[in-house]
Amino acid sequence: MGDISTGHESATVAEVATGEADVTEVGVGDILRSLTADLSKLVNQEIELAKLELKQEATKAGKIAGAFAGAGVAGYFTILFLSLTLMFLLASWFDSYTWAALVVTVIWAIIGAVLFTRARAQAKTLNPTPETTVQTLKEDKEWLKTRNS
Asked: Do residues 1 and 12 make contact, with C-beta atoms less than 8 angstroms apart?
């Protein structure tokens, strides 16, 4: 962290705070300068941690979106050709393309509802909150409270 010049040797903020360093010649300006540098470094580290966590979650979300897109394309063609096949088969049994098309539509509506439910459950596993950053910010806040009292 930051060093404070005492005229004879360099002392850290922690040494000054715990009384391990001789601070008789340390000016208030030196202490504030060191404290400001330490606080700036802490804030920058917290920002970097938040960026890293958000990037990880965004990557995870991108992979899930890609899986949904791939499944959608494959599903589209599968549904199209299976639907036509099933519709022609049912039409030969019902002697009606209308009833055959309706049966096929109901089947795919049920399948679509099941797929949507599963996708929604996966999407709920995403966590956009940078949990580690939030926790360390709480710890920093508590640490500052104990330093000020």
From this structure: yes
